[in-house]
Specification:
By secondary structure, this protein is α+β, with helices and mostly antiparallel strands. The chain contains two helices and 20 strands. The strands form seven sheets. Strands 16-17-8-7-15-18 form a six-stranded antiparallel β-sheet, with no helix packed on it. The protein has a three-stranded antiparallel β-sheet with strand order 9-10-11, with no helix packed on it. Strands 12-13-14 form a three-stranded antiparallel β-sheet, with no helix packed on it. α1 packs antiparallel against α2. The mean pLDDT is 90.
Length: 274
């Protein structure tokens, strides 16, 4: 019965984490580029009550007797499925069609990756324009360098971007011409779910995700497309999350009932001597 108490407690703790994960998904239903997270579970150790021996009559038993000791959270996995395209009036809003991620240079000098393409041109030193995220982090080109252009030569609101990420500027005949070396970089990962979530819709490389693969230099990848004037919405399905929330609540209640039942049985056992 004491074992049942701890087993029920492990279930309540795991389901609480599950509810927290679902709540985080629902809270980020309108977050640009957010990817749904799924809580996965695994069983704890099993205690052997009876091994695969013979019965008192000498007959072989086909199976033994083992009892589980509860459950724990194994992982919280991000599902990198495509989100809906949302139209934006901002000409520097970009959505990705495919598996690619934008590269951002963090304040610590490290490279982070995101599906949030809500960018803007900000003024830099020496008459420059820098393409940056809403937090001011520089967006990287295919060479892994910040995208910086001369503000004396280009007007930010006239710059267009092709599907392959090439920045273009209209000539005298109003025909878009590529700006040399200015191509928005996109990267893919062998295991995107292994990326480390660092907040602000950004991810960091880990050993589980593998190194970033540059789409511009690897011809074995299926290339992603950039769509100017759109943002990628979250892939959270509200109906699914509400169903999962109800299931998690019911599982939490059942585990609490297990603890109550074990407590009642222990109380009755203590009263047998009276």
């Amino acid at each position: 019965m004491v074992r049942a108490l701890w087993t029920g407690a492990s279930g309540m703790i795991s389901q609480q984490n599950n509810v927290d994960t679902i709540a985080n998904n629902l809270a980020n239903v309108n977050t640009t580029g957010y990817k749904t997270e799924v809580n996965e579970f695994k069983s704890l150790l099993y205690q052997t009550l009876q091994t695969k021996t013979t019965t008192s009559n000498g007959e072989n038993k086909p199976i033994g007797a083992q009892v589980g000791l509860g459950v724990r959270n194994a992982s919280i996995t991000s599902e990198f499925t495509q989100g809906a395209y949302l139209a934006s009036e901002n000409p520097t809003s970009f959505a990705i069609g495919g598996d690619g991620l934008f590269g951002l240079q963090g304040e610590d000098g490290k490279v982070y990756y995101t599906r949030n393409g809500n960018f803007n041109f900000s003024l830099g030193g020496n008459n420059t324009l820098k393409l940056s995220s809403s937090d001011g982090l520089p967006v990287l080109n295919t060479q892994g360098q910040p995208i910086v252009i001369n503000s004396n030569q280009y007007m930010a609101d006239r710059i267009t971007v092709t599907a392959d990420g090439q920045l273009c500027y209209p000539d005298a005949a109003n025909n878009p011409q590529p700006i040399p070396g200015m191509i928005i970089g996109l990267w893919q990962f062998q295991n995107a779910s292994g990326l480390d979530k660092v907040g602000d819709s950004m991810y960091a490389v880990t050993a589980a995700s593998g190194p970033a693969i540059n789409e511009a230099t690897n011809n074995n990848l299926e290339k992603s497309e950039i769509r100017q004037g759109y943002l990628e919405g979250s892939n959270v399905q509200i109906a699914d999350e509400m169903v999962n929330l109800i299931i998690a609540q019911r599982a939490y209640e059942m585990n609490s009932k297990t603890i109550q039942a074990a407590d009642t049985m222990m109380q009755e056992a203590n009263e047998l001597r009276r």
